[in-house]
Amino acid sequence: MPVTLSPLTPSFGVDAAGVDLGGPVAAEDLAALQEALIDRLVMVVRSQNLTPEQYLEAARLFGDIMPQHLTRILMPEHPEIAVLDSRQSDKDKDGKAIPTGSRAWHTDHTNHARPPKFTLLYAVKLPSQGGDTSFANMQAAYDALPAEERERLRPMVTVNVIEPDTGNVGDDARAALSKAPQRHPLIRTHPVSGKQAIYVHPGKTERIDGMEPDESRAFVRDLLDRAITPDVTYRHIWRPGDLVIWDNRATLHVAHRNYDASEGRVMHRLIIEGEVPV
Ligand SMILES: [Fe+2]
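Above: query sequence and fe (ii) ion SMILES. Below: predicted holo structure tokens.
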């Protein structure tokens, strides 16, 4: 059966049905999936049953696997894969596990010179309720801003550093990443589609070039508050076996923490090598 592609929202997102990423993917199906991902930015492939080897193989259909800086939670036999297990996450002051995932809208790993172009999450185990992931189409968000504001934003540059409090980053990885802040354009042009998008990780943005850190934080918060409207978002309600892949160059995402971390929410995460943002 050839792959069937259905939109998840009018603005972006695609559900790819009729594909088993555990086996060989026909050339025409692969081309359709790759094109849909660029066009729709978030792709959901339901009902997969993947060994770690098959998962790696599937990810390679979309590019080269990028090493992860979450060095404390890598799968021992397959260190390309990070295992996000809410039961193993940092505990709060009462000893309760803090749900994994950033609580604020962001794109992944802007503290790298070449941040990952795609991130993949594969749902292995889910809590009884909650733990959704939301996505925002930042191309549509940017396009909806007034022309005068778009012009003002275009030359802005963010200065990116690793956050001090990400517990899953090992000391060596942190030391390597802490050396050089990375400068990225706030408005990024997609290297394939040529579309522009707001590109920012508020937690990793030390400042916008030319602004003080406090001023930058307020500026980014205000921008995202206005730009991320319900019309440009998609909320993914996970089912076991879901594989979701998204384009970090043109979307932001946020993990909903409204679940009981002790029940266990287990995601296998992979990232794909990207390019220098322009
Ligand atoms: Fe993320």
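Helices lie at 27-40, 52-60, 138-143, 147-153, 171-177, 213-227.
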